[in-house]
Structure formats: structure tokens, C-alpha cells
Amino acid sequence: MSLTTLLGFTFVQNAIYAVTAVALAAGAVGYFVVLRRQAFAAHAIGHIGFAGAAGAVLLGLAPVVGLLVFCLGAGLMIGLAGASLDDRDAVVGVTLTAALGLGVLFISLYSGYANATYSILFGQILGVTTGDVWLVAGLSAAVLLTVSLVYRPLLFVSVDAQSAAVRGVSPMGYSVLFMGLLALTTVVAIQIVGVLLVFALLVAPAATAAALTGRPARAMLLAMALALASSWIGLALAIWIGGPTSFWITALASLGYLGARVRLRVGQTHGQRVAA
Amino acid sequence: MSVLEVHDAAVTLDRRVIWQEATFRLERGTVAAVLGPNGAGKSTLLRAVVGLVPLSAGAVTVFGAAPRRGDPRVGYVAQSRAADALSTMTGRDYVGLGYDGPTVGWRRDRARADVVARALALTGTTTFADRPMRTLSGGQHQRIAIAHATVFRPELLLLDEPLAGLDLAAQAEVVDLINLVRDQTGAAVLVVAHDLNPLAPIVDRVVWIARGHVRCGSPDEVVNEATLSELYGHPIEIVHTARGRRVIVGLDEEFAHPHPHGHVHENEDPHAHLAEVYDEVTR
Questions:
Q1: Residues B190, B263: one domain?
Q2: What pTM, to 2 d.p., does this model score?
Q3: Is the pLDDT at B255 greater than 50, yes or no?
Q4: Residues B131 and B220 in one domain
């Protein structure tokens, strides 16, 4: 099948639009997830969203409604409680456990076929409808717009909360705002790669970028580019070779990170030799 | 008008009085050392001056007004910055955050690069400003932090333990830099430290906090046997060495020794913990 024929299918077009929107938002927000060391929170919000999706299915609503409610709720809770580093992990862990318990309950109560929850777990990129594309694009655009506006204070408060507070940047305010952005990004990323693989877009490209450059703006743009590259190539491989898209995206993103770590290690050994 | 005036001030955290009846003023171009045992509330004093900790009594006025966050005339270097998050960032990027870090929006300021370059030049950090901060020594790190805090040539500079964990050579470098910044900008400087000796050559005033009380005056007025014995409630001896250093006998072990051990045992005193908990709450 030729490329033009493939690109003629609406479901392929929708998939491309959706991964593009998601990858850009996830790359940008992911950079701050890595910088703020909130990978665990990012992981938890996805799983908490799963409980929300299961609840929505039980009530006969669209899963994305449950995702939005649960992810944003959890994001606000973690953001409010976790401006301090000390008890952040505990707050995240307990919230996560409570939500997963609810998810189990919702699924056991639901008597129908749990197809919708399956796609929430593993993603369903090739089943994205035109309506989904608009939703994903709208949410991603909102996230990107906000990140670009608050980029400097968010960076400041993420690397040096105390000085930022003295300069009038509220660590608590930005903690809550950031968790809100993370929740929205998680909701859109789940549509594409699913709860279990949300890390592939949210953490792996940003961690790769952070390993390659220390310049903040450059690292954030690189994270967005890497997320975009692994999504597009992953989608192409899934269509041509077969296999789940989310598998290909995850594999590419993880390989990228591995490569960056190896490069970093080689660079360090080389640097030590030069220094010696 | 004094840069900083503290009048009969007290801070109470979680119903425990950290210190009270603090009265002192700080004039332009003077350096004051804030000394006292760990957990006495030295950092809390700095945080009260920038409005991060509320007073339970008295008044603090900065440039004749109540302290407020976000005043560009006040520069602040916190004791523990998130070293990990900063580690891959270059010093120049970090100093740039001192310039427009609090600014929301898309507009880029053309003066930024020049102002940052001037702050780097003033602090003598230009040569290593483009290296990732994880590759810098403790002293270089601290000098970049001072560059960050002096981007706007503040009139009041607050430094929380800038000498902690540094070897003697690096301590001397940082002390020279504090002196230089004071001379070049005319700023009033409040420095928290746990040993007066490295700062002694540049210090005009001493603020000593112990057992909830605060004494302020010239180094000779405060660091003498009568004042410190009264402040600590038991006899304190001070031995003057041939080179003019003061060895204080009768405090806790850390203060009895002229050289710092390099590490601050932050959690020994319940006050320190309370202050930290409170800081988180007020954010």
C-alpha cells in the first residue's frame, strides 16, 4: 500500500493529528516533570485516571469525562499537598492506592464488556475519531499556551523554590498549576498510548533531552522534538510492520533514552581521561 | 533612613516563640553577621525580613515599609537550593532567572544579556558561567548564587550560610566577594554564619540569637564574655588568639572551635524542624 493511499484514510490522518498534538504537549510538560522530579506523580495520575475512566463507563458516560475529573482532582490534591518534597511521595502513593481500589470496584460492578477500559490501559491510537482529535488538539493547545506563558516562573520555582518565593513566585501556586497541566496532558496522552505507557511520551523524551543538554529552553524544545519523532516513527512502523502503535512508541522513546545515557557515560569517561 | 529596621520583633511558630524582643537597624554599606546556635532562628530572621514568615509582635521595616515579596531591591541567597535540579543548568542561565525568572508572558527583554553579563563580571564568575553547575566547586557555586541575587544591584542583600561546607580558601573567596559587592553597590548585607572568624575582617555589626533572645551591636559589643554569658545563661569564656581570632569556650562543641567542621547539624534542635515545617505551610 502506498503512502498516499495510507494518508488518504481518515483514521490514519486522525492518528497523525492526535499524536502530533499529544507529543508536543507531553514533551513540554515532561521536561518539567523530569526537572521537578515528579515522575512518580505523573505515573500515579495516569493510573488514577484509569479509575475515573472505569467509573465513567459504569455510569454510561464517555471514559474521557471520568479521566478528566479524576486526573484533575488528583493533580490538585497532589499539587496542594506536595509543594514540599518531604511527604510528596507518600501523598501520591496513598492517592494512587485509593484510586486504583475504586477502579477495581468499578470494573467488578460493570457487567458489560470492558473494552473501553482495555483501550484506556493500552491506548487506541488507530481508533481515534475526528471528535477525539479536536478534543486532544484543544487540550494540547491550552497546555502549550499556558506552559509558554509561565515558562520562566515555572522554571525558576522548579530549580530554586526558596529564592523564587522571595521574588514573589508562589511555590504552592505553581505546584498546583503544574499538576493541573500534568493532569490535562496525561488525559490527552492516555488517548494515544494508554495509562500503562503514558511514561513513553511524558518522561522518556524529556529525560533523554535533559541528559543531552542542560540549557533549559533547548532541553524543553528537544523533548518536544523527541516525543514527536518517536510518535510519528512509531505510528509509521505500526502501520507498515504491524503490532501495537503504543509498543513502537514506547520502544523508540526508551531506546532514545538508553542512547542518551550511553552517550553521557562515554562522554564522562572521555572527559575524565582528558582531565587526567 | 535605615535600610532595615527591626523593632521589638518576635516570631512564634506553632505556638513556640523562636525569638523575641529583637531590635536592631542596618545602614547602607554595612555588613552584619547573624550568629547563634543551630536552630536559634537565624534563617527565620532572614525569612521574616523578606516577608516569608509573619511576626507575632513588633515590626520589621525594609526601606521604611513592611517587608514584601518580590521587591527587586532585596537580594536573597537561600541556604539549600535544589542542587540536583540546578546541576545541569549553566550559571548564566541561573543568573538569568534572577533577572526575569518571576516574569509571566512571552516578552523577552533585550537588556537581559547585558545585565546578566554585568552581574557575572561583578562577581568574577564569567570564566565558569557557561559550565553546567554540577561541575563547579562549592565556592564557585556560591559565587554564582550571589551573582543571581545581585542582578538588580540590590540595596539589601541577605545571605543564608554562604560559607557552609566550604574549605577555608573558598570561604575567604566568598567573604572577599561579599565585601566587593558591598563596596561596589553600597548594599547593606545580612549574612547568616556559624563562625564569626572568617567574616570578621568585613563585619560591622553582629546580630547574635540564642535561647530566644537577640543581641545586636558592634562585634566588640556583642562578642564579649559578659554579653554572651548573659545571652546563654551560663559563663562563656573568650580567648583572643595572636591573629585576632576569637575562640569562644562554653558554647556547644561547634562554637568552641575556631574552625567550622563544615557540616551543620540541622535537626538537632526541635526549633529548626518547626521552622522548616512552618516554611512549607506558608508557601
A1: yes
A2: 0.86
A3: no
A4: no
